[in-house]
Amino acid sequence: MAAPRNMLSGYAEPAHINDFMFEQQRRTFATYGNSQLKESAFLKYQVLHRSCLCRYMLNEWESQKVGVPLPKILYVTEACSLRRSLMRSFKHLLELFLSPEVCLHKGYALDPSIDNPEVATKYIGSVEEAEKNQGLTVFETGQRKIEKRKKFKENDASNIDGFLGPWAKYVDEKEVAKPSEEEQKELDEITAKRQKRGKLEDDKPGEEKTILHVKEMYDYQGRSYLHVPQDVGVNLRSTVPPEKCYLPKKQIHVWSGHTKLWEVYGDRRCLRTFIGHSKAVRDISFNNAGTQFLSAAYDRYLKLWDTETGQCISRFTNRKVPYCVKFNPDEDKQNLFVAGMSDKKIVQWDIRSGEIVQEYDRHLGAVNTIVFVDENRRFVSTSDDKSLRVWEWDIPVDFKYIAEPSMHSMPAVTLSPNGKWLACQSMDNQILIFGAQNRFRLNKKKIFKGHMVAGYACQVDFSPDMSYVISGDADGKLNIWDWKTTKLYSRLKAHDKVCIGAVWHPHETSKVITCGWDGLIKLWD
Question: What is the DSSP track for 370-414?
């Protein structure tokens, strides 16, 4: 009986080598011996896979400048096969491919023409390599393992100082990455070009001098103008706030000038002028006793001044613009101060050594305010990155981070007299109140509105008895709200331009001081 016809030309048996076996042998052959064609040899082949029809194509094997004629061969897998005759041709092709004229090194592979399991396995190609490797395929052998880099070993956990564990360094590891001579030359050239392009401004500190505006520094009893007056009807040494505060209604005095020291009582004279910055002064902070103060200016310098003599004691700079500065309020830490810089850092200096002793580097924008809270164990900072961060003193990682998608930048922050609340001037024309103890949550019931401050860092303050909240605005008005009801009580036309600062006298019931961009400082009562 004739075999059933499964092809146009008749009957063909299924192939005894499948795709997987063929690929395995091909990789083994290519791996062992690294079959590499000479530059003059050019090999081009195509392999056709399964087909239900008789789809035969002859692959053209060509050689250039070798002189070895390569036969035409057809290789079809599984469904399409010409059985042994094709396998013999395939064997002949491989032998030819492995000939010294074509190949530099020899590999080995199983003989595909043998399909009888009883016949011993035969190899084509480099039989010596096959016997040496016991006929293992590329997937079965453990050859070609890459040697791992060696590490220093010290896995004894009881050795506290010397234990390395998984963190041990490599034996050949370089600890310092130093550029080569050629790389160093290139870096020097690039640096020189950059310096030529944009020459840095002359950042020499301004010449410090002072002008005394009163005839005598000391009175007949030898007391300087820093002596606290006791004949003004108010105990200025007391730490107890007034029992009841009232709304200021009228202007009673005006001062004009900058970086000057004035009297608030008596004749309200200008006592002394401090000159020493080459650019505008951004912030000032007095120590607890008032004997010294720090000034931060756009000339990139922070300067420590003696309030009584006007002498500049020290200068501090890290080549960045300081936006705010604060002494540590603790009596035993009056030699330390922090400054919020334009390079997103809060820098801590020691006055005695003049060195930077700590850096708080977590903000994503210039730092605008620093306020000490929780009995001076912590401080709060705000930034142009629209966030509020709380820090433990001397620990450079913020333990509280407040940032919401709806939040705006808060360039002015003030602590309430009782130490429980933080009033933050938000750039969306609101004053937000955050708790200043433990959780630092937003108090949604205390939001003060009705003024226009967008784009201006208008200062906020509380009355000493916590009855009122005050703030300037872009229209030059002084706004006064009731603390309990958040109702806007009063709006006084204080300045012709922006009213940038407003402070309630801590010992008086109704005295408020405001300053504006018109260059005036005004006292209200």
Answer: EEEETTTTEEEEEETTS-EEEEETT--S-SEEE--TT-----EEE
